[in-house]
C-alpha cells in the first residue's frame, strides 16, 4: 500500500474534455500521472464511484467549495479519481460544476487504485473492484499526506482535513 514518502505509481488516467485546448481534444484524453504531477502540488482525493450518495453530496462538493482556499495554500490542482470511465466522470463533472476547480479523472480499469494498493472490493454490491475513499497531498509526484477512510466512513478524507494539512 502506498504511504507518505512514496511516489505516485506510473499510470495513465483519463479525463473527459468538453472543449478543445492545450493539446486536449474533445472527449477522453490521457493524463500521464508522472508528467502531470511533476513540479506541482496536487490535492488528490479518490472515492468508490461517481454519482454515489456520499461522493456526490459531501466529498466532491467540499473540494469544489474550498478551491480558492487550496489555491491560497499553494495547491496547483485538485484531482478527483474514481474507478469509472471518462464519459461518466465528464457527466459527473458537469453535474457537480467542477469545471476549472477539480479535475475529474477516470481510472476505468482500476489500474491506479491497484497500483496504490488502495482498492475496495464492492463485487457483492454489483460494483466490482473500486477505489477506497482517501485523500492525499502530492508534491512533485511524492505523497506528503495520506488520509485513508475505514469501510463505509467519511471522516478523514474530506476537503477540510486535507486543507489543514496543506497549511501545516
Kindly list the characteristics that best describe this protein:
single chain; alpha+beta; Glutaredoxin; two-stranded antiparallel ribbon; 6 helices; EC 1.11.1.27; Glutathione-dependent peroxiredoxin; antioxidant; redox-active center; oxidoreductase
Write the layout of secondary structure elements.
Elements: E1 12-17, E2 27-32, H1 33-37, E3 41-47, H2 53-65, H3 67-72, E4 77-82, H4 86-96, E5 102-106, H5 111-116, E6 119-122, E7 128-131, E8 134-139, E9 142-148, H6 159-167
Parallel strand pairs: 3-4, 4-5
Antiparallel strand pairs: 1-2, 1-5, 3-8, 6-7, 8-9
Word description of this protein:
It is a single chain. This protein has 168 residues and is of the alpha+beta class. The protein has a single domain, classed as Glutaredoxin, CATH 3.40.30. 30% of the residues lie in helices and 30% in strands. The chain is built from six helices and nine strands. The strands form two sheets. The protein has a seven-stranded mixed beta sheet with strand order 2-1-5-4-3-8-9. The two termini are 24 Å apart. Keywords: Antioxidant, Oxidoreductase, Peroxidase, Redox-active center. Belongs to the peroxiredoxin family. Prx5 subfamily. One of its GO terms (biological process) is cellular response to oxidative stress. The active site is at residue 55. InterPro entries: PRX5-like (IPR037944), Redoxin (IPR013740), Thioredoxin-like_sf (IPR036249), Thioredoxin_domain (IPR013766).
Amino acid at each position: 500500500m502506498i504511504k507518505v514518502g512514496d511516489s505516485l505509481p506510473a499510470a495513465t488516467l483519463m479525463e473527459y474534455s468538453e472543449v478543445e485546448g492545450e493539446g486536449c481534444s474533445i472527449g477522453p484524453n490521457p493524463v500521464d500521472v508522472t508528467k502531470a504531477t511533476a513540479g506541482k502540488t496536487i490535492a488528490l482525493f479518490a472515492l468508490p464511484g461517481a454519482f454515489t450518495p456520499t461522493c456526490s453530496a459531501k466529498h466532491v462538493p467540499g473540494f469544489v467549495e474550498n478551491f480558492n482556499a487550496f489555491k491560497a495554500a499553494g495547491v496547483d490542482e485538485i484531482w478527483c479519481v474514481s474507478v469509472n470511465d471518462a464519459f461518466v466522470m465528464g457527466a459527473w463533472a458537469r453535474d457537480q460544476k467542477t469545471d476549472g476547480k477539480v479535475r475529474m479523472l477516470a481510472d476505468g480499469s482500476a489500474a491506479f487504485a491497484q497500483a496504490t494498493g488502495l482498492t475496495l472490493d464492492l463485487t457483492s454490491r454489483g460494483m466490482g473492484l473500486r477505489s477506497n475513499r482517501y485523500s492525499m497531498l502530492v508534491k512533485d509526484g511524492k505523497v506528503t499526506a495520506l488520509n485513508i477512510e475505514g469501510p463505509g466512513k467519511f471522516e478523514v478524507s474530506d476537503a477540510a482535513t486535507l486543507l489543514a494539512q496543506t497549511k501545516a
